[in-house]
Write a structure and sequence with these properties.
- The structure is a single chain.
- By secondary structure, this protein is an alpha+beta fold.
- It has 2 domains: 153 residues, 2-Layer Sandwich (Beta-Lactamase), CATH 3.30.450; 124 residues, DD-peptidase/beta-lactamase superfamily (Beta-lactamase).
- The protein is 36% helix and 19% strand.
- The protein contains 9 helices and 14 strands.
- Strands 2-1-14-13-12 form a 5-stranded antiparallel β-sheet, sandwiched between helices. Strands 5-11-7 form a 3-stranded antiparallel β-sheet.
- The two termini are 33 Å apart.
């Protein structure tokens, strides 16, 4: 009798999950008919829904699937911070120490590691403007000597040499700033004596062997075979490839790390956030990431984790899908 009850319970659970998936499929299609990307939902530590729709590469008419990797934009910063917290845990880094302890030429003597971690450093938030102001627009620098791809070292060099003004006093407030993540990534490179990319990929393989998350800042010369291309919506039924600053007409690419250039499937990212990030949050919240041709969104609250990854630059679809899904969970 107990065995039959267990079988019935398992069958009922399977039916509920299947029914939920069918409802979610129709919800997504109705909420955002032109959506291209992946959606994954974890409830109480179990993957209850996984969905893929649209195109891996629209011009070549290759359809999207659940195993493909998409750029996650600023959501990468959570993995950067995990690598920093590992250094702190292993007593190789002190979060209350000044950044200048680890980057000797760093000119802001009152900025600590903790200021970088909680986004309260006051560092200039737009590092691309820094590059334009101090390097690209400098006529005394020959074109061939200007970086074809901005690196973390380039931004650190600008901060060290030119000491651009802070936007506010360290600790005064907390404001999202990608420059913080670039400095953290540079510290990771300094502490491990290897590239950020290599360090992060080794950490991910060691700690999360079954998750499909990869750091790669050079998709042109070191391609990811299972990567979905990024797109820009030209119209409701037409997408064009958009994956870098060069697609916007810039003469250089952005190869900085720490705040972007991590790629993941929605299933893997939902498992990561539900097990690593969500337990640290007391209240439900959502976070977004943006990159040319991609956008990402994660939401978690009361045992639910929803990840929406899109390989178009349109953020509206993801917001519409999240709203529709929250009506069911």
């Amino acid at each position: 009798m107990q065995k039959s009850q267990r079988l019935f319970a398992a069958a009922f659970l399977f039916y509920c999950i299947s029914a939920s998936s069918q409802v979610s499929d129709s919800l997504i299609i109705k909420a955002a008919p032109q959506f291209s990307g992946q959606v994954a939902i974890i409830k109480n530590d179990s993957l209850v829904f996984s969905f893929a729709k649209g195109w891996m590469n629209f011009p070549m008419q290759i359809p999207m699937n659940k195993e493909l990797l998409l750029e996650i934009g600023e959501l990468s910063s959570y993995i950067t911070r995990e690598a920093i917290y590992d250094l702190i845990k292993n007593k190789k880094l002190d979060n209350d120490s000044m950044v200048s302890k680890y980057i000797p030429l760093f000119p802001y003597k009152n900025i600590t590691i903790q200021h970088l971690l909680n986004q309260s450093s006051g560092l200039p938030s737009n590092y691309l403007k820094l590059y334009h102001r101090y390097i690209y627009d400098d006529e005394s620098i020959k074109l061939r000597d200007k970086a074809k791809g901005i690196s973390n070292a380039d931004i650190i060099h600008i901060l060290n040499k030119y000491e651009p003004a802070l936007e506010f006093n360290p600790g005064e407030k907390s404001v999202q700033c990608n420059t913080n993540d670039i400095v953290l990534a540079y510290i990771i490179e300094t502490m491990y004596f290897k590239s950020y990319e290599e360090t992060i990929n080794e950490m991910l393989i060691h700690k999360y062997k079954n998750l499909n998350i990869i750091a790669n800042n050079d998709i042109e010369y070191t391609p990811l075979p299972l990567r979905a291309s990024g797109h820009r919506k030209e119209s409701a039924n037409l997408l064009s490839i958009e994956e870098s600053l060069m697609n916007f007409g810039f003469k250089y690419s952005d190869a900085t790390m720490g705040h972007h250039h991590l790629f993941a499937s929605a299933e893997s990212l939902s498992k990561y956030f539900s097990t690593v990030v969500a337990p640290l949050e007391k209240n439900g919240t959502s976070y977004a990431g943006h990159e040319p041709g991609y956008n990402s969104l994660v939401y978690f609250n009361k045992g639910i984790c929803i990840v929406i990854l899109s390989n178009t630059s349109d953020e509206v679809d993801s917001q519409l899908i999240l709203k529709a899904l929250l009506s069911q969970f």
